Amino acid sequence: MTRLIIEKQVHDKILNYKRGKIIFSDMFSSLGNLESINKVLFRLTQKGLLVRLAQGIYLYPKQDKELGTLYPSVEEIAEAIAKRDKARIMPTGVQALNKLGLSTQVPMKAVFLTDGAPRSILVGKRTIKFKKTTPKNLAAKSEVCGLAIQALREIGYKNITPEQLDKIKQVLRNEKKELLANDARLAPAWIAKIILSVSSNN
């Protein structure tokens, strides 16, 4: 298959996607070898159809009249990678605090626990790190509860403020009692106590 034919097929396939789609080189593996596909994607980036996010990762961008190109968040990129790899992920550290509204800090390194392959991916000036973990750390049935466990781990038992504790309890109060009881078993004792205190008051 000639280069121009491959390029047209990749181009046409991309046009069928919705704007904002995160695209990986291996999505076109049926059209040619990886080296050929990467060259095609590079050319389509030069032509303005795509934006390169990281090695082998591209964006079919949405455009806003005032803001210009709309870029996905680091978390959206991480979730797209996890979906491709059929892996589970869980934000940790400051990333978990952000999701719960406990921090506005934007870390240079976003760390996610995963049951997939461990790796680090450079996206612009930021890094997405996938850290291999045990199934237990990804077993929470409530996403919010899983985030709360990771956020509390990040803060630490001795450092948590009454305001942070109130905020976490407020978020957890919207979860079902049986989910809280289940997920508390996955947490360290001091965190389980906080979760169960919410559960008993639900």
Which secondary structure elements does this structure contain, and how are they paired or packed?
Layout: H1 3-15, E1 21-24, H2 34-46, E2 51-54, E3 57-60, E4 62-64, E5 68-70, H3 74-85, E6 89-91, H4 93-99, E7 109-114, E8 119-123, E9 126-132, H5 143-155, H6 162-172, H7 177-184, H8 189-201
Helix pairs in contact: 1-2, 4-5, 7-8
Molecular structure report:
With 202 residues, the protein is α+β, with helices and mostly antiparallel strands. It folds into three domains: 66 residues, Winged helix-like DNA-binding domain superfamily/Winged helix DNA-binding domain (Arc Repressor Mutant, subunit A); 64 residues, no CATH class; 62 residues, no CATH class. Helices cover 45% and strands 19% of the residues. It contains eight helices and nine strands. A hairpin with a 2-residue loop joins strand 2 and strand 3.
Task: Name the features.
202 residues; alpha+beta; Arc Repressor Mutant, subunit A; 4-stranded mixed sheet; 3-stranded antiparallel sheet; 8 helices; 45% helix; elongated
